[in-house]
């Protein structure tokens, strides 16, 4: 899905007007994508916001390989392939000094992308932890309120057996609250 949107985004960028901002470009790309994909909207804007600066998506236009390209090798067209080769396969020729300095830009971009992704994941994890703690505190508060409401329950209209169990539960709640208050007093000191 992101791959398809990348092509649409590049097309929208070519169709753009000078002085147009990113928001206008994104709206045009969304519109083109929706028209080409049966009115289905592209929903991964947050992913695209991160990936659009990665070298894979920010590369120049695709090379047309349908025509005859004289004396062009795969490396001329696509650059050096840094993937490790399986055993038994021939290895590509070693890089010259100029190739080695040119390829560090990709490695640096890859490292930068990795750091950005790591930072993004760390921020999301911290936000999730804060949200979890907030929800846990909310649950504890609601439980305290329910317990206080239960303590206000009258037993005068109940039969003796039901009143006994209500009083027993009230006593358990009071003991729990005393313990909780005792723990809070210890923290204050």
TrEMBL record:
Positions of region (Disordered): 61-117
Official protein name in the record: No apical meristem-associated C-terminal domain-containing protein
Source organism per UniProt: Tanacetum coccineum
Compositional bias ranges of the Basic residues kind: 86-95
Domain of life where this protein originates: Eukaryota
Biased composition (Basic and acidic residues): 73-84
Composition bias type Low complexity, residue spans: 100-111
């Amino acid at each position: 899905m992101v791959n398809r949107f990348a092509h649409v985004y590049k097309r929208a960028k070519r169709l753009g007007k000078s002085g147009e901002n990113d928001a206008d470009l994104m709206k045009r790309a969304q519109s083109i994508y929706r028209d080409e994909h049966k009115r289905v909207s592209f929903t991964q804007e947050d992913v695209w916001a991160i990936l659009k600066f990665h070298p894979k998506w920010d590369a120049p236009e695709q090379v047309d390989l349908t025509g005859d390209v004289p004396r062009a090798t795969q490396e001329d067209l696509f650059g050096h392939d840094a993937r490790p080769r399986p055993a038994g396969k021939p290895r590509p020729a070693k890089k010259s000094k100029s190739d080695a300095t040119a390829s560090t830009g990709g490695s640096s971009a890859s490292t930068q992308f990795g750091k950005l992704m790591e930072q993004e994941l760390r921020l999301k994890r911290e936000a999730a932890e804060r949200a979890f703690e907030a929800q846990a505190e909310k649950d504890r508060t609601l439980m305290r309120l329910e317990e206080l409401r239960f303590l206000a329950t009258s037993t005068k209209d109940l039969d003796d057996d039901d009143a006994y169990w209500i009083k027993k539960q009230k006593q358990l709640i009071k003991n729990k609250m005393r313990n909780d208050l005792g723990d809070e007093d210890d923290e204050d000191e």
